[in-house]
Design brief:
Blueprint: H1 8-33, H2 38-41, E1 42-44, H3 48-55, H4 60-69, E2 73-76, E3 79-81, H5 88-114, H6 120-184
Length: 185
C-alpha cells in the first residue's frame, strides 16, 4: 500500500498504520489488565475504533490472526469473543511485537519528516541500510568480544591457576615450616 501511495498520501498510510497498531496495543493491554470486563470479553467489529482504525487499514486475515493470537475467536461475522482460556504469555508477546511495530512506524515517520520530499520508499531503503549496517557492526563487535573473552578467559584461567599454585605453595611452606619447628622443639 505504501508503494502505491505517493507524496503526502504515503505519510498518511503510515500514520493510519500507526493508529491501528496503537488500538491493537491498547486492546492487548486492556485484555491483560482487565480480562473480566464485559467490553474486553467481546469485541464488536462494527464499532468506530475497529472500523476506522483497524479494518480500514489492515487486511482481514491479519486482523483475524492477531486477534486469535491474543485469545479472541470469531463467534459471528461482527464479533470476536474470549471463548477459551487464553495464553497470557502469547498475549504479552503479541502486545510487545505490536509495540515494536508501532515504534518502527514512528521512527520511519520521523525519518520521513526530516527528508525534503518524505518519500516512503527511499526512507524505507535508508532504514533497511541503517539496520543492516548496525547488524553488521554488532556481528563484528560480538566476534571481537568472543575473541577477547577467549583471550581473557585464557589469561584469567592462567592467573587463577598461578594464584592457586602460589597459595598452595605458601600453605605448604607454612605447613612445612610449622612441622619442622615442632620437630626442633
Amino acid at each position: 500500500r505504501c508503494r502505491r501511495a505517493r507524496g503526502e498520501r504515503s505519510g498518511s498510510v503510515l500514520r493510519d498504520l500507526l493508529r491501528a497498531l496503537e488500538v491493537l496495543e491498547l486492546l492487548c493491554v486492556n485484555l491483560l489488565l482487565c480480562p473480566w470486563r464485559k467490553e474486553i470479553r467481546s469485541l464488536k467489529t462494527f464499532t468506530g475504533n475497529f472500523v476506522y482504525y483497524i479494518q480500514s487499514v489492515l487486511p482481514d486475515d491479519i486482523v483475524t490472526t492477531v486477534l486469535e493470537k491474543i485469545g479472541y475467536t470469531a463467534t459471528t461475522a461482527t464479533e470476536f469473543s474470549l471463548v477459551k482460556k487464553r495464553n497470557n504469555e502469547e498475549t504479552k508477546q503479541t502486545a510487545f511485537e505490536i509495540f515494536l511495530a508501532r515504534i518502527e512506524c514512528e521512527t520511519i515517520l520521523e525519518l520521513m519528516s526530516k527528508e525534503e520530499h518524505g518519500n516512503v520508499e527511499k526512507t524505507l531503503q535508508k532504514r533497511t541500510k541503517m539496520q543492516q549496517h548496525l547488524h553488521d557492526r554488532e556481528d563484528e563487535m560480538s566476534q571481537e568480544e568472543k575473541a577477547e573473552s577467549g583471550e581473557n578467559k585464557a589469561v584469567s584461567d592462567t592467573e587463577l591457576c598461578l594464584a592457586t599454585q602460589q597459595q598452595l605453595a605458601a600453605h605448604s611452606c607454612l605447613s612445612f615450616e610449622g612441622a619442622s619447628s615442632r620437630r626442633s622443639q
